[in-house]
């Protein structure tokens, strides 16, 4: 849960109190001519597809979606938010424009349980023949399930850091929050050489990374190091980091990282970087407010859909290859499920009316 002071600060930012921000760093000398990633992206958005149900849960917002698409079915996990706190929900659908009618399964009904759980990430860990759901619960937590379509089987939470918040995060978090855990593994065949990496953010301009071998996973996470930092402007490296393996790519575009940031007038968008390895140097790709991975500057809305949000916020690419390598084929147009909100909404942070929508990549 976030403190009232922190919520007030976020509300002020949301209202546009932050009107001037330092220039965002940019690299323009990277040769991407032989790689599959474009240097700029264009998207078209649906209207709101999924929101809270009219039930006794009294949810204010649906947030932070993670999604895989298997045999034509979208499997979605998301945070449920209201003033009293967070938990998570699962639903699935086959027709995008009927997503809003999909039944909800609230994950506090499973052994995963009640209490603070938020910001899920789902993937299939092939060595264990299990689905993993990674999320925050005050620590970096996970649950497992042999069947993604049966949400009642998600196990009780276990944590990646048995001793609590690592010291490097304690020392650098300031007045931020430890949030948005994300796991991605490399593709080495030897399980003792293959590494699985755990990323997290602190809402204070720092992105952290830990690692363990695939043979040990989920045990044995190392103490984190900083994978990326912005000491001048924490809002330029905020949260909601996603890392994907780019199918067929080589060189410095083998992996792509996207991170949520704030625009100069307080709305949300995604920046992007690339790297030759998960633990390598991250090179800016589409990483500015003027040229974002996804944001107000490069998202239009479907014909007949009013511009209902100015934020392209916490979400992820729809994955059709759901294993632990998080491989995405960028040679075909992407779908990206995100959270958006009415820019005129005025309420405390936890009670903002977030809704889920989909952007689809437009190709030249």
From TrEMBL:
Cell compartment(s), UniProt: Secreted
Keywords, in A-Z order: Glycosidase, Hydrolase, Secreted, Signal
Catalysed reactions listed for this entry: Hydrolysis of terminal non-reducing alpha-L-arabinofuranoside residues in alpha-L-arabinosides
Keyword Zinc included in the entry's annotation: no
Enzyme Commission (EC) number: 3.2.1.55
Signal peptide boundaries: 1-20
Pfam families: Glyco_hydro_62
Predominant place of localization: secreted
Gene3D superfamilies, alphabetized: Glycosyl hydrolase domain, family 43 (2.115.10.20)
SUPFAM superfamilies: Arabinanase/levansucrase/invertase
Enzyme class: hydrolase
Purpose of the protein: Alpha-L-arabinofuranosidase involved in the hydrolysis of xylan, a major structural heterogeneous polysaccharide found in plant biomass representing the second most abundant polysaccharide in the biosphere, after cellulose.
Family: Belongs to the glycosyl hydrolase 62 family.
Protein name per Swiss-Prot or TrEMBL: Alpha-L-arabinofuranosidase
């Amino acid at each position: 849960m976030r403190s009232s002071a922190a919520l007030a600060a976020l509300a002020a930012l949301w209202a546009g109190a932050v009107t001037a921000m330092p220039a965002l760093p940019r690299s323009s000398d990277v040769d991407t001519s032989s790689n599959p990633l474009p240097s700029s992206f264009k998207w078209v958005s649906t209207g709101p597809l999924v929101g809270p149900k009219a039930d006794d849960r009294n949810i204010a917002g649906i947030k932070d979606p993670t999604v895989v698409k298997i045999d034509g079915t979208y499997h979605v996990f998301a945070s449920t938010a209201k003033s009293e706190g967070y938990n998570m929900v699962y639903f699935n659908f086959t027709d995008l424009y009927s997503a809003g009618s999909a039944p909800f399964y609230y994950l506090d009904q499973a052994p995963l349980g009640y209490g603070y759980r938020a910001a899920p990430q789902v993937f299939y860990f092939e060595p264990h023949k299990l689905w993993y759901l990674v999320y925050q619960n005050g620590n970096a937590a996970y649950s497992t399930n042999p069947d993604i379509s049966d949400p009642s089987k998600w196990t009780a939470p276990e944590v990646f850091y048995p001793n609590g918040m690592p010291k490097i995060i304690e020392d650098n978090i300031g007045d931020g929050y430890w949030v948005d855990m994300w796991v991605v593994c490399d593709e080495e065949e030897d399980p003792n050489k293959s590494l699985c990496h755990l990323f997290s953010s602190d809402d204070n301009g720092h992105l952290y990374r830990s690692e363990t071998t695939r043979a040990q996973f989920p045990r044995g996470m190392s103490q984190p190091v900083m994978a990326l930092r912005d000491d001048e402007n924490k809002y330029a490296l905020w949260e909601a980091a996603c890392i994907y393996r780019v199918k067929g790519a080589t060189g410095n575009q083998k992996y792509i990282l996207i991170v949520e940031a704030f625009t100069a007038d307080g709305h949300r968008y995604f920046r992007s970087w690339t790297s030759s390895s998960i633990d390598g140097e991250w090179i800016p790709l589409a990483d500015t407010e003027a040229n974002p991975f996804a944001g107000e500057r490069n998202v239009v809305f479907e014909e007949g859909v009013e511009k209902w949000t100015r934020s392209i916020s916490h979400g992820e690419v729809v994955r059709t290859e759901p294993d632990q390598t998080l491989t995405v084929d960028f040679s075909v147009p992407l779908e990206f499920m995100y959270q958006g909100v009415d820019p005129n909404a005025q309420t405390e942070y936890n009670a903002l009316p977030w809704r889920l929508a989909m952007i689809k990549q437009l190709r030249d």
